[in-house]
């Protein structure tokens, strides 16, 4: 061997008469010194005289198929080509990505549980039941907290348009107002916010019929003074 030959692993010049070992990899053949045999193995090189070395290298160099590609791979036909998709497996029949990744429905959403109360309760009973649920929940605590700062609000309790089982509760101060919905068709559904704003004039006329009051922040079906309620203005108690 020429004195100019070098070890493919460490780069050291191989001396005349020094024993070398031949290895192969995907890049080709390599000559390494006796001290670098272990390093050649770590690099994944195979002994050149090993049976089937070239076949193993070709298999390792071939692109690997991912899990989903293998899962949905179609069996080959007699000529080696993959079978064509059937009509039932055409892309048009597969669900869109957004359908697969859609979040689960809200368990507290409307219609997610069976009805618990009859829809034909008398108005007085319906409103009283809605107020009791309102005062016991987070919305009631919000009214109590705001009342300590802003004073007693004006309150309207009535049916919500477009929802036969929904009672609308409107609570208004001079600087802000809120509307909540109480679903009498599902007594497990929490009270939910419908709208809010800053000007009382933003509230529709039907919701400005102040037919309830708030004492210490707790709503009661007690009508405010007749004149101010008729004018639709916030009532100070």
Question: Your description of this structure?
Answer:
By secondary structure, the chain is α+β, with helices and mostly antiparallel strands. It is 24% helix and 19% strand. A four-stranded antiparallel sheet has the order 4-5-6-7. Strands 2-1-3 form a three-stranded antiparallel sheet. The chain folds into two domains: 1-64, no CATH class; 123-231, no CATH class. The protein is rod-shaped and about 115 Å long. It has helices at 37-42, 53-61, 67-71, 97-101, 123-136, 138-150, 226-231, and strands at residues 20-25, 28-33, 46-47, 154-159, 166-172, 177-183, 192-197, 213-215, 218-220.
Summarize this structure briefly.
The protein has a four-stranded antiparallel sheet with strand order 4-5-6-7. A three-stranded antiparallel sheet has the order 2-1-3. The protein has seven helices and nine strands; from the N terminus they run ββαβαααααββββββα.
Keywords summarizing the entry:
single chain; 237 residues; alpha+beta; 2 domains; 4-stranded antiparallel sheet; 3-stranded antiparallel sheet; 7 helices; 24% helix
């Amino acid at each position: 061997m020429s004195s100019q030959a070098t070890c493919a692993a460490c780069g050291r010049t191989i001396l005349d008469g020094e024993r070398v070992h031949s290895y192969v990899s995907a890049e080709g053949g390599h000559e390494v010194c006796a001290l670098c045999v272990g390093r050649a193995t770590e690099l994944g090189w195979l002994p050149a005289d090993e049976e089937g070395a070239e076949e193993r290298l070709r298999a390792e160099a071939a692109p690997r198929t991912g899990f989903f590609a293998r899962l949905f791979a179609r069996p080959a036909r007699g000529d080696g080509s993959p079978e064509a998709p059937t009509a039932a497996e055409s892309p048009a029949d597969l669900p869109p990505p957004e359908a697969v990744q859609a979040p689960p429905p809200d368990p507290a959403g409307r219609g997610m549980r069976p009805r618990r109360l009859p829809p034909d309760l008398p108005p007085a009973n319906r409103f009283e039941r809605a107020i009791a649920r309102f005062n016991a929940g987070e919305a009631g605590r919000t009214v109590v907290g705001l009342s300590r700062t802003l004073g007693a609000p004006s309150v309207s309790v009535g049916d919500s348009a477009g929802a036969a089982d929904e009672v609308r509760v409107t609570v208004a101060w001079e600087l802000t107002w809120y509307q909540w919905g109480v679903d009498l068709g599902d007594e497990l559904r929490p009270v939910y916010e419908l709208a809010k704003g800053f000007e009382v004039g933003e509230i529709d006329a039907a919701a400005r019929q102040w037919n309830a009051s708030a004492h210490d922040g707790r709503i009661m079906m007690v009508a405010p003074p007749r004149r101010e309620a008729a004018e639709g203005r916030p009532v100070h108690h």
